[in-house]
């Protein structure tokens, strides 16, 4: 039998309202009893009695058995989620940064208090990738999980490539459509997809790592020269997080722009859509595709988690608990395209091998092999003007 859920909702922004819209249209045997908000002055579409600015009204209400946390303050989100779990409430959250930063602690809290935290909406919006990595790929050897995990940066790249929009206009559109984070550097700088990658890797390989341990290079230094290069060679540029097994149970995690050929599934993933390619030993390649940002798509994943709580669903973190021997390693070499201004950059980055060089007064690039550890050591430098780097598969 399914239990009636009485929900306390935190946050009534893009996703909170999206979820509310969906719930309103269905008879789901659930009730949103209270909605906690930060700003009581904002005009709301619902009855004022439904709202509170006091978190404890929800957290201490014994009737509320389910907390849905959809705010964009990382530390406040952690306090809400951990307190709710400790108070015996099950929780659904879409706060990717908070989950990536506190995952191990959140696993232990769930274990100690017997409560469940679900967060499908935190990774790739509407795409059901977490439950699939956790449940479906339990016995398969996963070679890699990679894709487009950020709707805003993909929207910007699509608008630049397909409609010749300039970067600033495309970013403004992504913000106006409610896709971007409060500080959009999180999207375009590759932080947001990195948090999602960290969460996905814990369910794919059982590895829990700190986001600071993972390289993220973004698209913020993309120039018209890079676009011209990509077009001439029939590539598109996408921002791609990768988790990949290599060597003896080593797993490498990184986020970097990638030059994508038309044969790649990710080539046709446009605008706010996300795509995840899972490469497994026996199933071979599988491709998940769906909207990665926006109120209704993310709200649909949140609702699916809420529905799963009715039946007592919990992530078992099977791969983490059984310790399958995977370790994170940066002992990995990437083949990259690097556009640069200053010749000293080549030496600074310590290329292992250079296979192609182009040199004109207004456009210089090299293609060659570089160790991931060198990219990590130069991460800040590579996110600044004067250089653009993208992985290029040979
Ligand atoms: N800013 C995020 C994105 C929202 O653009 O993908 C969804 O997590």
UniProtKB/TrEMBL annotation:
Hydrolase as UniProt keyword: no
EC numbers for this chain: 1.1.1.3
Pathway where it operates: Amino-acid biosynthesis; L-methionine biosynthesis via de novo pathway; L-homoserine from L-aspartate: step 3/3; Amino-acid biosynthesis; L-threonine biosynthesis; L-threonine from L-aspartate: step 3/5
One GO biological process term: threonine biosynthetic process
Residue intervals of the Homoserine dehydrogenase catalytic domain: 128-306
UniProt-listed InterPro entries: Asp/hSer_DH_NAD-bd, HDH_cat, HDH_CS, NAD(P)-bd_dom_sf
Pfam family, one: NAD_binding_3
Sorted UniProt keywords: Amino-acid biosynthesis, Methionine biosynthesis, NADP, Oxidoreductase, Threonine biosynthesis
Gene Ontology MF annotations: homoserine dehydrogenase activity; NADP binding
Catalytic activity: L-homoserine + NADP(+) = L-aspartate 4-semialdehyde + NADPH + H(+)
PROSITE patterns noted in UniProt: HOMOSER_DHGENASE
Domain Aspartate/homoserine dehydrogenase NAD-binding: residue ranges: 11-120
PANTHER family per UniProt: HOMOSERINE DEHYDROGENASE (PTHR43331:SF1)
NCBIfam families: PRK06349.1
Family: Belongs to the homoserine dehydrogenase family.
Protein name: Homoserine dehydrogenase
Native species: Pararcticibacter amylolyticus
